[in-house]
Amino acid sequence: MPPLPAEPRPGRYRHFKGHEYEVLGCARHSETLEILVIYRSVEGDNTLWARPRAMFMDTVALPTGEQVPRFARADGE
User: What superkingdom does the record give (predicted)?
Assistant: First the structure.
């Protein structure tokens, strides 16, 4: 089995809607082997989340039509 991808690296990220999250790392779905990003909210209750890596790394269109990353690095790295 190939190694997990290097990106996204662990650290703090900002969702395009403004909330901040800490990426803990990547994992494989136990049934499909799809690569998931595991992250937690740094605001409020520290809820854990998992999202397909392709979706995490994707861009989204703002109402203005501008394309921006769904999650952008927020800790200066």
Answer: Bacteria
Domain membership of residue 3 (yes or no) is no
Domain holding 58, by residue range, is 11-73
Sheet with 35-41, strands from edge to edge, namely 48-52, 35-41, 20-28, 11-15, 71-73
pLDDT tens digits along 2-27 = 899 999 999 999 999 999 999 999 99
Please report whether residue 55 resides in a domain. Answer: yes
Predicted structure pTM score: 0.90
Alpha-carbon distance of 21 to 30, in angstroms, equals 24
User: What is the tens place of the pLDDT at every residue in 44-56?
Assistant: 888 999 999 999 9
Asked if residue 5 is part of any domain, the answer here is: no
